């Protein structure tokens, strides 16, 4: 099962969460893009994760795996945002860097 769509989904949900003032306030020293940029980037990353899953597994299984990986990514993000918000942003960046390398495995 390809994991790169799950990593991209985690980064997408992180961008969408950081577009909200509630989650943005816990990361004061970090310089973040504007809320609008983060929102657009989050939705584009979600579309990219769907395209990756469908391309790798086909339309029927790809959509099913994509929805499952989105659920896991969202649950992990909720837990990390309540526990260590800076770690969530770091893991999102690491996930985006690692996702292209996982595509070749």
TrEMBL record:
**Does the keyword section mention Transmembrane?**
yes
Query: Is Transmembrane helix a UniProt keyword of this protein?
Result: yes
Q: Name one Pfam family in it.
A: DUF3325
Domain of life per record: Bacteria
Keywords noted in UniProt: Membrane, Transmembrane, Transmembrane helix
User: Which stretches are transmembrane?
Assistant: 37-55, 60-81, 87-104
Per its record, how is this protein called by name?
DUF3325 domain-containing protein
């Amino acid at each position: 099962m390809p994991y790169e769509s799950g990593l991209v989904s985690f980064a997408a949900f992180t961008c969408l969460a950081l577009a909200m003032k509630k989650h943005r306030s816990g990361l004061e020293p970090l310089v973040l893009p504007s809320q609008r940029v983060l929102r657009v980037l989050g939705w584009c990353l979600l579309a990219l994760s769907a395209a990756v899953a469908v391309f790798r597994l086909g339309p029927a299984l790809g959509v099913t795996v994509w929805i499952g990986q989105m659920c896991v990514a969202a649950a992990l993000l909720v837990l990390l945002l309540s526990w260590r918000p800076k770690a969530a942003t770091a893991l999102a960046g690491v996930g985006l860097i690692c996702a292209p390398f996982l595509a070749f495995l």
